[in-house]
Amino acid sequence: MERVIKAARSSGSLNLSNRSLKEVPEEIYRNLDSHGEDDKWWEAVELQKLILAHNNLEVLNEDLKTLNMLTVLNVSHNKLSLLPRAIGELPLLKALDVSFNLITSIPEEIGSLASLVKLDCSSNELKELPSSLGRCLDLSELKASNNCLTKLPDELANCSKLIKLDVEGNKLTSFTEKMPMSWTLLTEINAARNLLTSIPESIGLLVKLIRLDFHQNKISSIPSSIMGCSSLAEFYMGTNLLSSLPAEIGALSRLGTLDLHSNQLKEYPVEACNLRLSVLDLSNNSLSGLPAEIGTMTSLRKLLLTGNPIRTLRSSLVSGPTPILLKYLRSRLSSDEESGSGTKTMKDDQIARATRLSLSSKELNLTGLGLTTVPPTVWETEDVVRVDLSKNSIEELPNELSTCSSLQALTLSGNKIREWPGAVLSTLPNLSCLKLDNNPLVQITCNGLEALTNIKILDLSGNKSSLPESFSFSRLPQLEELYLRRMQLNEVPQGLLTLQRLQILDLSQNNLASIPKEIKGLTSLAELDLSDNNISILPPEMGLLEPSLQVLKLDGNPLRSIRRPILDRGTKAILKYLKDKLPEQ
After folding, report:
1. Segment-wise mean pLDDT, segments of 10 residues, the chain, 585 residues
2. Closest by alpha carbon to 148, among 168, 134, 163, 166?
3. HSE (CB half, 13 Å, CA atoms) of 63?
4. What's the CA gap between 248 and 270, in Å, rounded?
């Protein structure tokens, strides 16, 4: 131990974990004073990082204040029952981990930690958090799971930089409306296994929220404001008291996982069939039937229905493979449409209504009308900012679109466009979102892609072998979301791993066999879908994405390097496993 402590005087970092310590060695508190005759005392540095995890410590004494240059303190997995007031005299402390102890209260002095960014006090015996925590204005990550908390202090709403909140396994009965109103930067909330009875209406203000876990509570309804959570990718509401779902849930365009098992749902709303889910768990509810529109949810890989009194479907369909069930439901939908199909007049009415709406909303929506061409009469305003022509049979873009110089978003998904519409796209200087997925594009030209200088969202999924070999995605530096599903890709496209602003990357359903270690450069990445490829091993460097990456999808790969229990525990566990595989620097 003497050698380790001596080394810490030059490195500023000391790790004494797993040493069966019953008390903190006095030499640590006298770090710079206890040098030997042979030490070069003038080269010594103050202790900045102290790790005492996995020991048998029962007390931290007030001498802790002598370590006033500490930025990281980890005393997790010990036998501490309290923290000294001196904890508040560490002005530079950024990360404090006191998890897995026997702590019953945290001193109010913690509010003096003006630099605190991360606090982990999970798995203790806390009945409350100190109100002074609201003075830690830089706090971005709070973990307080598996305690005995009955409420969160109102002052916590002052922590407006909060990004991750984990309060799973407590006795919380409510969140105040004020909290989500202040926490607009939140990307993750885990409040599972509590006694919550409702979700605050202000939840809709969390536009950056990616993962929301309220499973195993006593919540009876989801507010319609949930539609405001436009970045939500995973939503867990299993084992609650839900009897219905709001139609507005269908507006969550990025939602991939929706867990509703073990509730009291009597029906699944048709509006929710617009979701592009990969996993939908409706097991153990009170569903007697399903809307045929679920059959159109072709992205679904797993639909769980067991434990419902469904009478309109054969039991073999309910418990069988998801693709077969979806195909059956689609066939029912087709027959329904044939028996009650609209007339040409009805279609004309829909087009006229969409045209009138575009004058006030600046959005033109002609999706799913079976159009082969776009009627010239719809272009009554040149100020339109969003145009949705998806799910039609359009083969080429109308020239009138070139007059819409204010256009920001153009959706052309599911049409019959074969040639890259470069002539029209080059006339749209403000275009930031282009969705051309599921078209029979033969070839995308390099010049065509390079013209998209301001593009932030690009979806080319389902256009097999259409990417030009010489093109580098580094020429699109503004990209924040990129979807390249079902493109027959054999490797990660050139230049893609240099996109510093990229937040969502979908490379699912391709032929990728490996992922380059340079993926660690995507430091803004929040969601990565690698499902349904041929990947057998992941680079340890991927673990370095842990601060930003919230959702990692790996289903359908022959992964052999990661054990199934780790994969089943989800993104956090996988990234930690990979990070731990990195060689120590």
Report:
1. 77 91 87 52 74 95 91 96 94 96 96 95 97 95 97 94 96 90 94 96 94 96 93 95 93 92 94 90 93 88 91 84 88 59 64 81 86 86 88 89 89 90 88 92 77 89 78 88 92 89 93 93 92 92 90 89 83 90 75
2. 168
3. 12
4. 11
d(CA 215, CA 260): 9
Beta strands in 366-474 (DSSP E): 386-388, 409-411, 433-435, 457-459
DSSP percent split of the chain into helix, strand, coil, nearest 5? 30, 10, 60
For 366, residues 6+ apart whose C-beta sits below 8 A from its C-beta are 351, 354, 374, 378, 388, 389, 392
Question: In sequence order, which residues have a C-beta less than 8 Å from that of residue 241 and are 6 or more positions away?
Answer: 218, 219, 220, 263, 264
* Tokens 């059956």 found at: 328
* Cα–Cα distances in angstroms (integers) from residue 274 to residues 41, 267, 350, 457, 533, in the given order: 68, 15, 19, 20, 25
**497 Cβ partners below 8 Å, 6+ apart?**
516, 518, 519, 521, 522
Quick one: tokens of 566? Answer: 């780790």
Distance of alpha carbon 183 from alpha carbon 165, whole angstroms: 10
Burial of 171 (0-12, 13-18, 19+ CB in 10 A): middle
| Strand 279-281 to 141-143 pairing | unpaired
Burial of 286 (0-12, 13-18, 19+ CB in 10 A): middle
pTM of this structure: 0.67
Amino acid at 376: P
100 Cβ contact list (under 8 Å, min separation 6): 76, 77, 78, 122, 123, 124
Written as six digits, the tokens of 391 are: 């799910």
Distance, in Å, from the CA atom of 168 to the CA atom of 189, rounded to the nearest integer, reads 9
Greatest Cα pair distance, the chain, in angstroms, is 97
Contact 97, 76 (CB under 8 A): yes
- Identify which of 428, 447, 444, 535 has the alpha carbon closest to the alpha carbon of residue 484: 444
Do residues 162 and 138 make contact, with C-beta atoms less than 8 angstroms apart? Answer: no
CA dist., res. 102 & res. 60, Å (int): 13
